[in-house]
Amino acid sequence: MKFSENLQKVDRRYIYIVVALAVILPLIFPLGLKTYTTTPVENLYRHIDAIAGRDDKAILIDFLHDPSVMPELYPMEIALIRHCFARDIKLFTISWIATGAPIIGMALSEVKEDFPDIKADIDYCDFGFKPYALAIPIILGMGDDIVKAVETNSEGSKLENLPIMKNIKNYDNIQIVMQISGSAYGYLWYTYARPRFGVDVGVGVTAVMAADAYPFMQTGQLLGSMGGLKGAAEYEKLVDIFAMQGIDYSKKKARDIAWSSKQYSLSNIPYKYKKARIGMDAQAVVHVLIILFIIIGNIGYFIDKRAEKKRKYAK
User: Fold this and answer.
1) CA angle, 149 then 154 then 157, to 5°
2) What is the model's pTM?
3) In angstroms, rounded to a whole number, what is the distance separating the alpha carbons of residues 225 and 215?
């Protein structure tokens, strides 16, 4: 009884300290927990990887978020860009909000450090910030002519003069539009671009939004999705076991934990390319800890209740 009473009276500050340690320690000393890939993320990777080395195809990433959701979304963007650079896939980037434009530049610079042969406006092109009010005209215009609809890149250069635009005309040359967002599910793209021009759309969203994307995948409006840090961790792993090894995608190999573990050592991978997997270590530890707290709290509650009943009948 004394034990149960003590459980009910634990100073909550001690609980906060334990939770803080459960978050911080795995970030400093990664546990290397296994990452299991799922179909929505595998679909995105397979579809993008299918155009490796092609000059007439590209992908477009829409950075529709501000820095507040970067811990979950930024690893997705880094993994996507790394995939494109490693597999010689043409890449376009755009943002409809002003705070998304600097994130594009930061992500491209961060990955480009490890790919010195990759050149701006030849291998990738940043369309930069375009006002949200112009989103629909630009999205519809890209279906006819990307050069006329977007006009300039982030530095003000005319798209028509850029080498990357060779063999790129409209959505027929866009393999997929990936919208990374903390507030939308790619609705502008699957509302205006997909029905009219047939372009495939995928999304990367925060964990709390992940479940809402499934109905759109079931109807075919979305090809796939990355949900929160877990989705980012899956894509990071696929890039490490296939793209960085020069191996074509195989679903069987992706789900073979023994095979995939042999393809890379997490300790040898730069921190920027494994942020999501390390973050998942901390997330997993905290989830287990919270479950334990709930179980212990309930045990204390029921023991206390039982003792109270005994005291009541004893009177």
Assistant:
1) 75
2) 0.90
3) 11
